[in-house]
Amino acid sequence: MRAAARARAKWQLLISAAAVACFLCAQLAMLRRHSASAAATQLANTASQCDGTAFVNAVAKCTSFACLRAAHSVPHEGKFNFPHFFIIGYPKCATTSLHAYLEKHPQALGSTPK
Q: Sorted alphabetically, which SUPFAM superfamilies does this protein's record hold (predicted)?
C-alpha cells in the first residue's frame, strides 16, 4: 500500500514538473516574439552582470508599468529572465531548503518575505 502511494506521489511530481516546463517554454516563446524597447535595452545593459541586485536597482528606477514590462522582456546576454514562480510542496519535502539554495544563487532573486 505504501509503495503504491509513493509511486503515485512520484508520478504527480513528474506531471507537475512537466507542466512547469511547458509553462516556461511558452513564456520563452512569448518573450522572443516581443521586441525590446529602448528603456529595457538600457536596463539590460546596466545590469548585464551576473549580480541580480544590479538588475533590481536598475528596475527600481522605472517609473511606469510599461518600463517594468519591457525590462522583463529583454534577455540579458544569452540569459533568460524566467517569470516569477511559487515553490509548492508538501510539509517536510525540502521546499525551505530549495528556497535557500535558489536565493544563494547569483543569477536568481529571492522573494521578501519568503
A: P-loop containing nucleoside triphosphate hydrolases (SSF52540)
Angle between helices 52-60 and 38-46 (to 10 degrees): 140
| CA-closest candidate to residue 21, choices 74, 82, 78 | 82
In a domain, 58, yes or no: no
pTM of the predicted model as reported, rounded to 2 decimal places: 0.32
For residue 48, tell me if it sits in a domain. no
Residues 61-103 have pLDDT tens digits of: 777 777 777 766 655 555 555 666 777 888 888 888 888 888 8
The range of the structural domain enclosing residue 25 comes to 1-33
For the record, the C-alpha cell of 56 comes out as: 533590481
Which segments of the chain does DSSP mark as H helices, in order? 2-33, 38-46, 52-60, 65-71, 95-104
Please report whether residue 22 resides in a domain. yes
- What separation, in Å, do the N-terminal and C-terminal C-alpha atoms of the chain show? 35
